[in-house]
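Suppose a classmate hands you a notebook page containing two proteins, each written out with its sequence and a corresponding row of structure tokens. How would you begin to make sense of it? This section walks through that situation. The first entry is reproduced here exactly as it would appear on such a page.
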Amino acid sequence: MFSSTKTNAIKIAIVEDHTLVRETFKNYINQSPFFSVVLDVTDGDILFKELKKKFIDINVLLLDLFSYKLDGRETLKMLSELYPSIRVIILSASTDQKVINTIFDLGAFGFVSKTSDTEELNEAIHSAAEGKIYQNKFYFAYQKIELNVTEIRILQLLWQEKTSEEMSSTMCLSISTIEKIKHQLKEKTNTKTTIGLIKYALEKRILIPGLD
């Protein structure tokens, strides 16, 4: 259930009721020098019992959506309320977008299909550990808009109150290009002002207060 940690590694917990799947995830993750599994349990009920027993330093939790006893969504809701510092990535073989939308509403930092490759899992863990939403096709479907890397970066710089001139210097783009992208962002998000654009990004959790 418990594992030793590696210095400076991202500390990961796994909640998965299928032993073979859980052990496969655990063995794969522990092969990386950047990750360390510190706890693995079969369901959310056991997870909370372990968390109540003693402090366990967990950065990222991989949570099976349909785990035994305590449903993944209920576990996620309780984690968001009781342990908000733990960043949760939902794992599931189901890709029902309506269900996926609910887990983002509940505060998940990402959704990864169990049919995805290991590279996607790695990216999701790193993203969540940095306090960023893992932005794959499921997250963009939740947003109902497509944002590229440049557009997301401009949103981040707007949040930092950077001027178009400062963005131009930072991103090596002309001021006219910056202004054009800002206009496109407002059209995509159906907003009229920079304040409205930032509000939209906060509501959709593209931007998270307190995190870069």
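The notebook's second entry, a different protein, reads as follows.
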Amino acid sequence: MKKYCAMIFDCGGVIFHFSSDRIFKHWALVSGKDAIELKKKFDFGETYQKFERGEISPSVFRKKTMNKLEFKISDEEFDNGWNSMYMELVPGIVGLLRELRSTYRLVALTNTNAIHAERWPILFSSVLEYFEKVFSSHVIGARKPEKRAYETVLNYLGVNPQSTIFFDDNPEFVRAAETMDISSVRVTSFKQMANEMRERGVRLECVV
């Protein structure tokens, strides 16, 4: 009898690569500002977190961010920069998810927002199709590491936390899941994640 019946995956850093530096480089290019200074000034605090919970609109987020960073660009250029962070799929992830889907229920839980949601579901549609459901923070009104984010996923799955396993590259989010009795793995590489699965009794055939 298998130990887990469901797997919960983070997206950025686990399913696909991304770099926030690309955002500030784009904004610097179109605003005439310095990318390093923009990154230093950017605030991942209250405004950013409200946007990830869907509590403020894209227009409010743009205005507050541009005021904070002291530049003015078009909404289109703002969004182009904001969405430039996405890179390529993690090599091997498609084959892994394809194999896992035949045995486990697969869902994703990601901190995201209304502007990003216009981009990444299209870019990575080929891999997202392997998930039964994708839980986006701005849709469910809660973000990792908040307890309600994990509860929303567990309630949907209708299973005990102990029968799920969670994969995320953020140690804070992993610790939060563990406090809810969800088996959790901090992902540092694709190979390490696959090895962790094997060590926990997950049989893998196609992954090296």
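A careful reader of the second entry would note: The chain has two domains: 6-18+87-199, 21-82.
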